[in-house]
Design goal:
Layout (H helix, E strand, L loop, with lengths): L8 H11 L18 E8 L5 E9 L5 E9 L5 E7 L7 E8 L5 E10 L2 E13 L5 E7 L9 E7 L5 E10 L2 E10 L5 E7 L11 E7 L5 E8 L6 E8 L5 E7 L4 E11 L5 E10 L3 E9 L1
Antiparallel strand pairs: 1-2, 2-3, 3-4, 5-6, 6-7, 7-8, 9-10, 10-11, 11-12, 13-14, 14-15, 15-16, 17-18, 18-19
Length: 297
């Protein structure tokens, strides 16, 4: 025995293994009832550290892809609950982002769902669940102003106060893609504001979309970033909004010299709230790589 800790040899080995860096603590698996694809796309931890939430897409018995959100015990990996969302009129969909309220009481997921008009017509779909039970609190969909177009939310963030939820992605207007950012009341799902952004360029791929959203520590500003089109080639485009009103505060575009493609995928804010960092990648005829940009917030 290790008399200093009152742990005998067999127990000591287990204890040491559990504290060894990189030791696998648990693994948990989840699959739908269909025979197709199951992919988790985002993970979040409760503020208490007791629960892990994952979301993504999971095929059902009809081999249609649903949202699937699962809660696990962070200590043991035991499944606490699993909830599925089959989309508008059971058209299916895909969840891309999950976040937890600062109080830990609510889990939010967002992504896209297909409507009755088929795969070319998708909507944002954002859902709030009770974090303890998985009970659905509210669900909101958004199709955009165009009759057609595949609208999809890619990222979600919760305000530091826990009173608002912000989602961003791609929405269509007059046949062209735009950034589409929406603020919801976190308790009720009521839409607080919606803002779109479209660059001035005529980039041929038509891939303008926001891929990441973050809220400043003060809760006063929302930042989104993604792929803009302020030239004949895709650029980074980062937009700052007033969190309360949605008023656009500034837009900044980054173009890598001679790049054929540049796309920002993630945005983060410094703890002091004075700097914003965006990162993604560029592709040029003779080079490719990461490109990370810092802005005065």
């Amino acid at each position: 025995c290790d008399w200093s800790s009152d742990v005998c040899s067999s127990d000591l080995g287990t204890a040491l293994a559990a504290t060894s860096p990189g030791t696998q603590l648990w693994v948990a698996r989840y699959a739908g009832t269909g025979t197709g694809v199951n992919q988790a796309r985002s993970v979040a931890i409760s503020p208490s550290g007791k629960t892990v939430f994952v979301t993504g897409n999971s095929d059902n018995a009809s081999d249609t892809s649903d949202y699937a959100t699962v809660a696990y015990s962070a200590t043991t990996g035991a499944q606490l609950w699993a909830k599925r969302y089959t989309g508008v009129d059971n058209g299916g969909g895909q969840a891309d982002s999950v976040a937890v309220s600062p109080s830990g009481s609510t889990v939010f997921v967002t992504g896209f769902t297909y409507g009755t008009t088929g795969y070319d017509y998708a909507d944002y779909a954002t859902i709030a669940y009770n974090a303890a039970t998985g009970a659905q609190m509210w669900i909101k969909t958004y199709h955009g102003s165009a009759l057609g177009g595949s609208n999809g939310a890619f990222s979600l963030a919760v305000s530091p106060s826990g009173t608002a939820v912000y989602v961003t992605g791609q929405t269509y207007d007059s046949g062209s893609p735009y950034y589409g950012t929406i603020a919801y009341n976190a308790a009720t799902g009521a839409q607080l504001w919606i803002k779109t952004y479209h660059g001035s360029g005529n980039e041929g791929f038509n891939l303008e979309a926001a891929y990441s959203v973050a809220v400043s520590p003060s809760g006063k500003t929302v930042f989104v970033t993604g792929q803009g089109a302020n030239s004949d080639q895709p650029d980074y485009a980062t937009v700052a909004y007033n969190a309360a009103t949605g008023a656009q505060l500034w837009v900044k575009v980054y173009s890598y010299p001679a790049a054929e493609l540049a796309q920002a995928n993630s945005v983060a804010i410094s703890p002091a709230g004075n700097a914003v960092f965006v990162t993604g990648y560029y592709e040029a005829s003779s080079s490719a790589g990461y490109a990370t940009v810092a802005y005065n917030a």
